[in-house]
Amino acid sequence: MLKRLYLGFTNLTVIQDVKLGERNNVVKIDNLSCNFASEIPEEINNLHILEYLYLHDNQIMGSIPTNIFNISSLRVISLKVNKLNGTILENMCHRLPNIEGLYLYGNLLHGQMPTGLLECLALQEFTLEENELTGTIPRAIGNLTFLTRIYLGHNKFTGTISQGRQSSKLEDFSLIVNSITGPIPVEIFNISTLVILSLVGNHLSGNLPSSMGSRLPNLETVYLSLNDLDGVIAPSISNASKLAYLNLSNDKFSGLISMSLGGLKHLKKLDFRVNNLTSEPSSSELSFITSLTNCKNVTRLGMIDNPLNGSLPLSIGNLSASLERIYAYNCEIRGNIPQGLENLSSLVILALSKNRLTGYFATTIEGFQDLQGISLNENLLTGIVSEDICASKSLYNLYLHKNQISGSLPSCTGNMTSLRYLSIVENSLNSSIPTSVWNLDNLLALNLSSNFFSDILSKEIQNLKAATYISLSANHISGHILSSIGDLQMLLTLSLAENKLQGSTPDSMGDISNLVFLDLSNNNLLGLIPKSMVALQFLSYINLSLNNLRGEIPFDGPFKNFTSQAFMSNGGLCGITRFLVPPCSTSIDHKSTRKKTSHVILITLGIGAALMAITFVRIQRLNIMIDVACAIDYLHNGYLTPVIHCDLKPSNALLDAEMVAHVTDFMDKDDSIIYTRTLATFGYIAPEDVIDSLKTMDYYCRIWFGRTSINKPNEENFTGKLERVSLVMELALHCTAKSLKERIGMKDALAALEKIKV
To answer: Which of 94, 196, 415, 495 meets the CB 3.0–4.6 Å disulfide criterion with 172?
Structure first.
């Protein structure tokens, strides 16, 4: 006679393939996760002597067949972690006098818990976690005298925990993440067999009994966090001598933290964060920490968000050698971080932020080798960041922002290859940012804002390819934003505001496809807003105000959602009325759809002629030529259809009352390409029409000195001027190279002019 049907590691996908109707002598079905994806067949009713039904961890669908509950021989039903739905039969226990284990957690069951559970008199373990059950918990559950474990968490139960009789054999009681209200019945604290009490994430209220631990000799775990419990934590809790895990966080407890906690010899994790607990007022130190030195197994200590109002005692270094994590931020802790903390050899997390700690930061972290997280932000720490910090080879995050730390960042910072988060905001660090920092290619977040770093923005910033957050704002960083910034494909936030950056915003800014936040405000940026940024579909915040930007503000893509505040105080921006800037005016038609590359050949004369006009390199004349170059750059790169001005000369650049240059003389165009009708004025000859020599360059300079004659100029005067403007002439040579491929574009020429001005 077949007594056990074992289906583990088979290729069956539906239970019907087992042909249960032909196996009525089976006592036990053990599937061991066969990935069944069907419903439970009705034929299961034919298994009259079945005692153990294990169909857990599959994908069984549908409702639980009612005839399962007619198999009176069943001792265990395990249907956990499937996709069962529907309700649980109200009189499910009527024909199950021998049922000992009922495991239904991890399904989609709904409705109420059946009151007929009272008839399952032999029931020992009952799990309904992670379903969608509603209603109240029946009082009858307390009459199940053999019940040892009940798990009802992650449902939608309401009401209160019934007072009165409770199972005298109950060991584990879990009701986490429901909507249970009212007090915890005092009877629960009298169940001497209780090992685990977990009521996390409800709306429980009231006090804990003053005799809480007196009748719980076997209690090991108490999780009561995320409720509305109040009152004091009774010293009697130490009578629960086996207690190892105590979590009373996120409640409303008040009063003193009892020194009696030191009597819990087996304590491993203590967490009472987010309450209103205080330390002994007669001592300036946190005396309860001294009592905890008797707890040699503690691995985690959580005190966050309590008004402890005291200093750390020297005895903190005598806490358990197993202690791994200390969380004590926003606790009104004052004074120095005492020496001896390095004795905690297992410590990996030290979180003491948002306190009133003083003293030198450098001495705080001496001796630590295995620290992974340091959070000392928002204190009053002074001194420098010493090279001792680099000894922590496993350091994952370092938060030091909002202190009074000064000096420079040590160059060895770049050797901390495990570092993922570095924040030293609002301190007084100076000098330059070590180049080694840019080698932290696994860094996720870098925030050095609001310091006194004076440096040129390093091109090596492109190495931070894993970074999602970079902020260098409010420093004295200068230089240009290089096109390599576009390599930071993972970047979500970029802030370079309040610095001394110059030049134009590179087109590659539009390549940072995941960018959400961009702040380049309050710099000396020039030129156009790149059209490529229209493609930044996730960009929700931008600030380009307080710069010297010109040209049209894009209005498509993310720019549809931006307001005028993002572009305030820029000299030459234009665009739609929503941005509160002048409209962009031009008489040029937009019919041409040719690519920009087909037009560039025609602009060589304009580039060469415009740049040669700055030979008398007075600042005002240089400004005029930059204005002209900006206008041409806009026509080539910033306009909807690239436009070629084929007659650029001094008489086509008009000055307004503020000496700002405006390019004029736009003529008609044909239907195939946009360019001005007059291809050149006499005397302004394309470079390829003359020989490639220095005399040829003299010839051009002669023309741009404004004379109509092409006679050789005065050698002495000309040579003197040429020496003073060597940089300009070098740029002119690049613009008038004989080969079309060797000539630079107007965007690069404009950037070079701006650099010459600086």
So the answer is: 196
Strand partners, 447: 423, 471
pLDDT for res 587: 44
CA distance 26 to 54: 13
Distance CA 248, CA 200 (A): 9
Query: Quick one: tokens of 393?
Result: 């080879």
Phi and psi at residue 127, in whole multiples of 5°? -125, 125
Count Cβ neighbours within 10 Å for each residue of 602-631 and write b for 16 or more, e otherwise.
Answer: bbbbbbbbbbbbbbeeeeeebbbbbbbbbb
Tokens standing for 130? 């992670």
Give the DSSP H or E segment for 502. strand 500-504
DSSP 714: P
DSSP-derived 3-state class of residue 390: helix
What is residue 21's three-state secondary structure?
helix
- List, in sequence order, every residue forming a beta bridge with 470; answer none if it has no partner: 446, 494
Averaged pLDDT, 730-738: 71
Split at pLDDT 50, 70, 90, the class of 451 is: very high
Retrieve residue 527's tokens.
Answer: 């030129």
238, burial (CB in 10 Å: exposed 0-12, middle 13-18, buried 19+): buried
Place of tokens 């070590």: 434
Burial of 16 by CB count in 10 Å (0-12 exposed, 13-18 middle, 19+ buried)? middle
Task: Report yes or no: 190 and 218 within 8 Å, Cβ to Cβ.
Answer: no
Give pLDDT tens digits for 28-60.
787 655 566 678 887 887 888 899 999 988 889
Residue 17 has pLDDT above 90, yes or no: no
Dihedral over alpha carbons 109, 114, 116, 119 (to 10 degrees):
60
Residue 532: what are its φ and ψ, rounded to 5°?
-60, -20
Question: What pLDDT, in 10s, does the model give residues 370-393?
Answer: 899 999 999 999 999 988 888 888
Sequence-distant (6+) residues with CB within 8 A of 371 are 347, 348, 349, 350, 365, 392, 394, 395
Strand partners, 202: none
Mean pLDDT across the chain, nearest whole number?
A: 83
Cα separation, 238 vs 696, whole angstroms = 97
Longest dimension (CA), the chain: 121
Contact 161, 137 (CB under 8 A): yes
Which pLDDT does position 87 carry in this prediction? 95
For residues 122 and 340, what is the distance between their CA atoms, to the nearest angstrom? Answer: 56
Region of 532 on the Ramachandran plot (φ > 0 left; ψ -120 to 50 alpha; else beta): alpha
Rg (CA), the chain: 38
pLDDT score for 722: 52
Tokens of 91: 């009189």
Q: At what angle do helices 726-735 and 604-612 cross, to 10 degrees?
A: 170
State both tokens at 627: 């204005």
Output the six-digit token pair for 406. Answer: 């000064």
CB 463 within 8 A of CB 488: no
What CA dihedral angle connects 83, 85, 91 and 95, to 10 degrees? -30
Give the model confidence (pLDDT) of 454-509 as tens digits: 989 999 999 999 999 999 999 999 999 999 999 999 999 999 999 999 999 999 99
Task: Report the amino acid identity of residue 751.
Answer: A
pLDDT digits 0-9 by tens, 52-68: 999 988 889 999 988 89
Helix (H/G/I), strand (E/B), else coil: 468 = coil
Tokens of 367: 């001796």
**Confidence (pLDDT) at 696:** 34
Can you tell me whether residue 435 is helix, strand or coil? Answer: helix
What the block records as the tokens of 67 is: 């005839």
Instruction: Give the whole-angstrom CA distance, residue 541 versus residue 492.
Output: 11
Cβ(266)–Cβ(297) below 8 Å: yes
Q: How many CA atoms lie within 13 A of 376 on its CB side?
A: 25
| Contact status, residue 673 vs residue 653, Cβ threshold 8 Å | no
Tokens of 142: 């307390």
